[in-house]
């Protein structure tokens, strides 16, 4: 700036020089000039005075004032430059604040549509464009307009289009040709938008992954299939090639429950490697490489281990392996830890389910033993006694012996039918393999043939139930038909399965009927479920269960379940 250059006087210095130096200098100069004029010949004094005071004096005054004015002008130029610089800084600060606000809003955006709307509005606010349109792959777009009366871009505007890393574009329209600074700012905004889009995509993938794991927990009871599904979802999320789960046994020893790598699934039961033991003692996930990784998976050069804990203590250790070194340095470890927590819950639920199945099997065995002892065994013993009597009467009273043989034969045939009924009711049904509808068809057809009665089935509408609800519906059908075979003395049974807002199962027979109030707690031979237990199972899943029957008028069992 002119007034502040090196070697130049500031305005205040110039004023000080003129004020302090010029008056005594004028006195000295005037004294010297008057002395010199006095030495001139007479007649020249007048012209000397006119020359000095008329020309030299005003010239000195002019140049002195001009010298001060130049300092003033330099100061004004400096002030203008400062004001311009301050304006630029203020505009830059406003842009920076707008960019920061845009970054914050992009981070807080809940979904892709919100990201596009926020980015379009932010681009208008930051660049001063009249219109902004943002598009990303997948057909999604967002637009915004600034302080303009135009509802859409016109031919009079100046367009600027920049590509978004990863796909898509940001189109801006200005009422004046965009400057290089505007282009650079638009490029920076496109990069921020790309990061916002990627963040939303990652959050969506995380939610989908967690949902997939949750579905695995809900739908699967088999431990190996459960661990296979959960670990496969986690491995796919981070691109891992190998996965394994070590669970604690009854002696709190970590043993291999499930593992799979490039060579396929491994046999379980093996003792955990040292790295797994370190993970079990750690408070959070651990990552290892080199030799420790090779002990877990033969071809791995990096392994991520996550402890599986709940309120009751250590459940196991989950491992992910990869042949790439440092493969898990940038992995979303917090997400994987959350998924491992879900897997922990799944393992606890599966173990509880297996334990409950063991208890149910034990109770069922005890009940079957009682039924055989109290029913079939006593009947067979009675038939044996009759045959002993026949052996003694066959010569002395052939007619009576023949009658006793027929009675024993009839009793044996009834017990054979009872044993076959129990075997048919207890045989395993593969719902997962055939699905609910095909399993119901097969079971109703076999039931009619096994019990020598007419069994009809009517299926209509769309039936969509969760795996757990399908198991409950089939169990109700199984128990109801078994009760028909054992107690109803029916000639015909009609089964109806209808879909709609709710799935309705109806089992109706033309048998003897009964009073529901007197037999609510009765246990059948198929699986130990009485009417009360069947009602509790259905109502626990949000369904309805009812029994309509009276002596001599048959029985109607009806169960309703909500669609999945």
Automatic annotation (TrEMBL):
The keyword Coiled coil applies. Member of the two-component regulatory system NreB/NreC involved in the control of dissimilatory nitrate/nitrite reduction in response to oxygen. NreB functions as a direct oxygen sensor histidine kinase which is autophosphorylated, in the absence of oxygen, probably at the conserved histidine residue, and transfers its phosphate group probably to a conserved aspartate residue of NreC. NreB/NreC activates the expression of the nitrate (narGHJI) and nitrite (nir) reductase operons, as well as the putative nitrate transporter gene narT. It comes from the Bacteria. GO terms for molecular function: 4 iron, 4 sulfur cluster binding; metal ion binding; phosphorelay sensor kinase activity; protein dimerization activity. Residues 367-564 form the Histidine kinase domain. The chain crosses the membrane at residues 21-40. PANTHER family: HISTIDINE KINASE DIMERISATION AND PHOSPHOACCEPTOR REGION, NITRATE/NITRITE SENSOR PROTEIN NARX-RELATED. It catalyses: ATP + protein L-histidine = ADP + protein N-phospho-L-histidine. Its cofactor is [4Fe-4S] cluster. One of its GO terms (cellular component) is membrane. This is Oxygen sensor histidine kinase NreB. It is found in: Cytoplasm. Its main location: cytoplasm. It is an enzyme of class 2 (transferase). Keywords: 4Fe-4S, Coiled coil, Cytoplasm, Iron, Iron-sulfur, Kinase, Membrane, Metal-binding, Transferase, Transmembrane, Transmembrane helix, Two-component regulatory system. PROSITE patterns: HIS_KIN. Residues 68-95 form a coiled coil. Its EC number is 2.7.13.3.
């Amino acid at each position: 700036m002119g007034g502040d250059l090196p070697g130049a006087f500031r305005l205040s210095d110039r004023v000080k020089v003129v004020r302090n130096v010029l008056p005594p200098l004028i006195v000295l100069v005037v004294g010297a000039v008057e002395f010199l004029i006095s030495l001139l010949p007479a007649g020249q004094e007048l012209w000397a005075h006119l020359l000095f005071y008329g020309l030299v004096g005003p010239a000195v005054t002019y140049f002195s004032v001009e010298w001060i004015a130049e300092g003033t002008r330099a100061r004004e130029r400096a002030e203008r430059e400062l004001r311009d610089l301050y304006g630029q800084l203020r505009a830059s600060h406003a842009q920076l604040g707008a960019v920061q606000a845009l970054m914050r809003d992009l981070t807080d955006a809940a979904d892709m549509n919100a990201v596009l709307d926020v980015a379009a509005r932010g681009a208008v606010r930051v660049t001063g464009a009249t219109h902004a349109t943002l598009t990303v792959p997948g057909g999604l777009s967002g637009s915004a307009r600034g302080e303009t009366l135009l509802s859409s871009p016109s031919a009079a505007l100046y367009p600027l289009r920049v590509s978004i890393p990863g796909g898509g574009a940001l189109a801006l329209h200005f009422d004046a040709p965009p400057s290089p600074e505007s282009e650079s700012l638009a490029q920076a905004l496109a990069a921020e938008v790309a990061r916002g889009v990627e963040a939303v995509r990652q959050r969506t993938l995380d939610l989908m992954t967690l949902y997939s794991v949750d579905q695995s927990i809900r739908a699967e009871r088999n431990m190996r299939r459960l661990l296979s599904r959960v670990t496969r979802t986690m491995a796919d999320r981070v691109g891992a090639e190998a996965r394994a789960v070590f669970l604690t046994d009854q002696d709190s020893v970590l043993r291999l429950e499930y593992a799979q790598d490039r060579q396929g699934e491994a046999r379980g039961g093996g003792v955990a490697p040292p790295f797994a033991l370190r993970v079990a003692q750690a408070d959070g996930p651990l990552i290892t490489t080199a030799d420790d990784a090779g002990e877990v998976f033969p071809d791995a050069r990096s392994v991520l281990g996550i402890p599986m804990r709940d309120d009751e203590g250590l459940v196991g250790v989950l491992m992910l392996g990869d042949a790439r070194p440092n493969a898990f340095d940038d992995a979303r470890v917090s997400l994987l830890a959350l998924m491992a927590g879900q897997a922990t819950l799944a393992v606890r639920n599966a173990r509880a389910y297996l334990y409950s199945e063991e208890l149910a099997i034990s109770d069922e065995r005890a009940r079957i033993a009682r039924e055989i002892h109290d029913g079939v065994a006593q009947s067979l013993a009675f038939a044996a006694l009759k045959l002993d009597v026949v052996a003694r009467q066959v010569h002395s009273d052939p007619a009576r012996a023949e009658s006793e043989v027929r009675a024993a034969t009839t009793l044996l045939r009834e017990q054979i039918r009872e044993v076959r009924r129990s075997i048919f009711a207890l045989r395993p049904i593969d719902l997962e393999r055939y699905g609910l509808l095909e399993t119901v068809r097969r079971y109703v057809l076999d039931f009619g043939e096994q019990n020598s009665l007419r069994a009809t089935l009517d299926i209509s509408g769309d039936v969509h139930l969760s795996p757990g609800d399908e198991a409950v519906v089939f169990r109700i059908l199984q128990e109801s038909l078994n009760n028909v075979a054992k107690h109803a003395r029916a000639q015909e049974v009609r089964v109806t399965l209808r879909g709609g807002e709710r799935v309705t199962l109806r089992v109706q027979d033309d048998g003897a009927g009964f009073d529901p109030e007197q037999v609510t707690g009765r246990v059948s031979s198929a699986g130990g479920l009485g009417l009360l237990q069947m009602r509790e199972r259905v109502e626990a899943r949000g369904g309805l269960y009812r029994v309509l029957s009276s002596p001599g008028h048959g029985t109607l069992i009806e169960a309703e379940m909500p669609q999945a």
